[in-house]
Structure formats: structure tokens, C-alpha cells
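Q: Hi! First time doing this. I have a protein sequence and I read that you can turn it into a structure. Is that right? Here it is:
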Amino acid sequence: MMPLQGIKVLELGQLIAGPFAGKTLGDFGADVIKVEPPSTGDPLRQWRLLHEGASVWWQVQSRNKRSVVLDLRTEAGRADVRRLIDEADVLIENFKPGTLEKWGMGYDVLSARNPGLIMLRISGYGQDGPYRDLPGFAVVAEAMGGLRHLMGEPDRPPVRAGVSLGDTLAALHGVIGVLLALQARQRTGRGQVVDVALYEAVFNCMESLLPEYSAFGVVRQPAGSALLGIAPSNAYRCADGQVVIGGNGDSIYKRLMQAIGREDLGEDPELAHNAGRAARVDTIDAAITAWTVQRSVQDVVSTLQAVSVPVGRIYTVQDIADDPHYRARGMIERITMVTGLSLDVPGVVPKLSDTPGGLHRPAPTLGEHTQEVLGQRFNSPE
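A: Yes, that's right. Below is the predicted 3D structure, encoded as C-alpha cells:
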């Protein structure tokens, strides 16, 4: 039995943040009903690379869900949604704040009908505050949350990670909030609102950024592939590529220096702890690079792994797909799309020993479950 079996989730959101939260709950057994607009459905159905008109990303984002088509711009569609909400444990929405209230579906109205309802609301800036009504996307959230400033090389424009980190972080915070609210409901019998702002989810992951500024007036700056103030931890050139090395633990640092033939740096009392190493990080990084550039990636990795120094190749997706550890951990699963294409997709995280999640339902076609879910009790046609 999956841990969320018996929990009914109604997903009204589109694209990334809200649906990622729904996907995560569905991976662990929640019955996730995704409400989509007629004709087009969720725009993600057509995002990035398509196979016979179907997005391969969609197969990941919408697995373990059922699709229902309803037009929320009509009163009939909203009436059907309200009836579905009456039977739901969780409602997920990532509309612009105030949209549900405009449609007569604010939490005060919905909770009067269903007191145990938990509403997850994901937006750019949250449900209140002076920026509430501004449009907010992950790209802006990552900038406002402090992350984008740190990404890149010094004195160069910031870069992005290549994926929508702000959306994903907000979704995961939303899932945590839902699980906390479900736990609280067991005691009180009442639901509540889980208010997640994209920029706050990013900001929550910024570690010591704010206290360092508060205490010392330090505005941390981008440091490329290094981790400022933590040494040594960086990417290093090899003869045929690059590796990342995390040698910032005190005993690990000594083993690293011994492995590269720099016992003088390993035994230097000034470098015994991180503060001293951070002050002389350029010297340490230069010593490591002088060793790595003469060796292949495989030689560096095998040498340092043999002495328990954290090291790794910088994976491409091809490396991921070929890696036996990914396979052994169930992190690559094979599905078949409705087009007939066999497709590798990410497995389920986290791993639970007694009640693991799983892939029990393929991503739905548009409106595939409308009649199944609505039946004859509701107004809207399939």
C-alpha cells in the first residue's frame, strides 16, 4: 500500500510548479485529478521535444494522474469543479492570486463546503504583500531569491541552471506543506491553506547568505564553479575533460593532498581547518589543477575514490542513462507512450522501505478520464 493511498488531490495548475507538486503526490499513491481547459489542455503537452505531437516531458510531469476537461471560464465548469473539491483532500492551484476568488472559489467558500480541505497555492510572490499581483515566473524568483546573482563567473552576467529550479523548489516546499497540513488535520479535523511563493522557496535554500550580510555586511559574489568560503571544492580541468572534487573536510583534505603529492600543503598547520584553506584557496586550487591536468578523468576519479576523497565526473544525460548505479537504484524506469515509443523516465524519489512510491498510471491524454470522474452527476460534457 502506498503512503498516500486514499488521498484525493484536485490539480488546477498548469505548466511546472503546481503540476510538479501533483506529480510528486501521485507518485506516492494519491489519486490526482488534473483539470485541464478544453481543446489545448495544459501547455506543457506541447513543450520542448515532441513525439508524434506528444511532449516527452509530459510523460514525466503528468504520470500517475487522471485528466478531466472542464472550462473554468464558464459557470457550469466551475460548478463541476466545486463538486469535485467537495470530495477532495487537497486542492492544488498556481493561478495569479485572486483568480479563484474571482471565480467564487476562495478558501473561505470552499472550506465552508469541505472543512477538511487543504489548499496548496503556489504563486510568484505569495497571496499577500505589495508584490502579490505581479506576474511571477521561476526565472524572476531565482533572481529575487538571491540564487541567480551567485550563478556564473565573477564580473560576468549570471547564468541559469538550464532547468526551472524556482518552480521545482516551490513545488517541493508545497508538497512538504501539504504533508504537514495532512498531519495537522489528523488532530484537528480541519484543513488549511499552504501558501508557497516561488521566490521564498528559492530564498529558503540560500544557506548563510543573509546572516553573513547581517553580521558582517558581506554581499556574497559569484565564484564560478567554486563554493565561496569552502575549500577546496571546485571543478578542475583534466587532460580529457573535467571533474568536481570536494576536499573541504579536514581529514579529506589531508588525504587529497597526499594523493596529489603535496604533503607540504596537507601538513601545513595553517591549512588544517577550513578558515585557513579558504584564505589560501588559490594556492590549493592551483596545486590540484597542476595534478589533474596531467591525468585523464578516469585516472583522477579512480585515484581519489581509492583514498575516499569525494570526486566525480561531470555527467551529461548520456552518462546518466549509461550509469549502472542509476539503474540499480531504480532511478531510470522504462515506459511506453501512447504513441508506442519506449521511453526512459526518472524514477521515484525518495525511497521508502515499506511503502514505496511507483509509476502506476501513464500520463493521460487530454480529457481521458472526464467521463470516468464526472459520470452522469455533473454538467460538463467530456
